[in-house]
DNA sequence: ACTACTACAAAGTACCACAGAGTAGTGGAG
DNA sequence: CTCCACTACTCTGTGGTACTTTGTAGTAGT
């Protein structure tokens, strides 16, 4: 699928949040997960900026742990604020998708 | 619904395209239509920049007509390239929404 | 050494928001 | 009759945010 960049604005952060909500994980693995899911063009650099933002906004807790196969990993987990933000994200997502569905079917 | 700005990036243009595909229309009316649909914060300025872009990219044809209740309106209609772009937009939209649905249900 | 794994920073781009200016017609106050 | 207010309508400049690109750099196993 060609360039999804613009369409991912504002949603990629929510996706990362959802992935972290599922399990405590780290940047590199999150990137791989997104790639698997079909967001093949997402690279580490993108994910790290999102993670930095999440941390700055106090939505996640961070723990550094040795990896055994490379440099230490920084594991991220959602805190309460993060779960609330995730809920808000899904609410917005549903709102937007429902309006667009309506538009598409020519709804009034 | 609070700030949808970021989530609309990359989709608003497609919405405008879809509206124009439905009927030949003009900027002000498109804005009102989007507002009705639930995108209440979208303002004229935003729509005009999109229309300028569509025209520059050769996706629409333009016709200026007197209005009777104000300055002349610029009516936009999709051309063949515009219809193709719209089809690509929906394909991307379906792709993204399906991947996100998968992510949400914890799909592998 | 080489490769895979992992984190990060800087510069660039695209899209939308905000705010304001400017044009055209209508209806009402004086 | 003129001026003003109001609505409809278009256009432009500035700015913010998020994602991309590109590159650096460090750790550990083969």
TrEMBL record, chains A, B:
<protein>
    <submittedName>
        <fullName>PadR family transcriptional regulator</fullName>
    </submittedName>
</protein>
<dbReference type="InterPro" id="IPR036390">
    <property type="entry name" value="WH_DNA-bd_sf"/>
</dbReference>
<dbReference type="InterPro" id="IPR052509">
    <property type="entry name" value="Metal_resp_DNA-bind_regulator"/>
</dbReference>
<dbReference type="InterPro" id="IPR036388">
    <property type="entry name" value="WH-like_DNA-bd_sf"/>
</dbReference>
<dbReference type="InterPro" id="IPR005149">
    <property type="entry name" value="Tscrpt_reg_PadR_N"/>
</dbReference>
<feature type="domain" description="Transcription regulator PadR N-terminal">
    <location>
        <begin position="16"/>
        <end position="87"/>
    </location>
</feature>
<dbReference type="Pfam" id="PF03551">
    <property type="entry name" value="PadR"/>
</dbReference>
């Amino acid at each position: 699928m060609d360039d999804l960049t613009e369409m991912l604005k504002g949603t990629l952060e929510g996706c990362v949040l959802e992935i972290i909500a599922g399990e405590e994980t780290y940047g590199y693995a999150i990137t791989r997960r997104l790639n698997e899911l079909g967001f093949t063009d997402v690279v580490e650099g993108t994910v790290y900026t999102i993670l930095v933002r999440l941390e700055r906004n106090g939505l996640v807790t961070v723990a550094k742990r040795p990896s055994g196969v490379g440099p230490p990993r920084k594991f991220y987990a959602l805190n309460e604020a993060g779960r609330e933000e995730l809920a808000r994200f899904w609410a917005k997502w549903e709102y937007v998708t429902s309006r667009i569905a309506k538009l598409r079917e020519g709804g009034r």
